[in-house]
Design a protein that fits this description.
single chain; 193 residues; alpha+beta; 4-stranded antiparallel beta sheet
Length: 193
């Protein structure tokens, strides 16, 4: 396997603190949404649509509707100056697909890999006040908000490590380094013939 690709996958993981002052343009967001568009789609239905957010006043509206890092109980999300510089909101067109499928995960991974290749990191968020966000952004009834992808240039270090004593919870050390436990390859490969 190409080590460069493995590093790209390893680097395309959740980051939650960003250099907010470093702009992400609508053009960059369009490039990333295009990767989602080009990704495989169940039955080739292509039900995903995207809202791209780079303007600060709209970013504030989005931020106010998100919940951050459930395992970090004493953290309400990034403070001003460390917030995302852009968002991609994944919508499901209910006229094309009545329920959630597999497309969201495939598209998000493509977007994450593309962002990592640009030096941008992100976090996909499912803890969303959907009705409030839909109202704030004027999202029409025919669309269901599925995920929000928060994006920015990283302002934190994230380390992948082996799980200890079965604990999958991510955590931060005294220096603010974010630690993400992962199961070993030996544990996840059930059989190899």
């Amino acid at each position: 396997m190409d080590e460069q690709f493995k590093n790209l996958v390893t680097g395309a993981r959740s980051f939650r603190r960003f250099e907010e002052e470093k702009e992400i343009t609508v053009e960059q967001l369009k490039e990333l949404a295009d990767l989602g568009r080009l990704s495989p789609s169940g039955a080739n239905l292509q039900p995903l649509k995207y809202i791209l957010v780079s303007k600060e006043e709209v970013r504030e509206k989005v931020f106010s509707c998100l919940g951050w890092a459930g395992y970090l109980k004493d953290w309400d999300g990034p403070v001003k100056g460390e917030r995302p510089a852009g968002y991609i909101i994944l919508l499901r067109d209910k006229g094309i697909a009545a329920k959630l499928g597999i497309d969201e995960g495939i598209a998000v991974q493509s977007i994450f890999l593309g962002a990592a290749a640009m030096g941008i990191k992100g976090c996909f968020i499912g803890n969303i006040k959907k009705a409030e966000l839909a109202e704030k952004l004027g999202i029409e009834e025919g669309y269901e908000i599925e995920l929000v992808i928060a994006l920015g240039y990283p302002k934190e270090e994230v380390i992948i490590e082996e799980i200890k004593e079965g604990d999958v919870k991510y955590w931060r050390d005294e220096k603010g380094v974010h630690h993400v436990p992962k199961r070993s390859l030996q544990e996840v490969v059930v059989k190899a013939f």
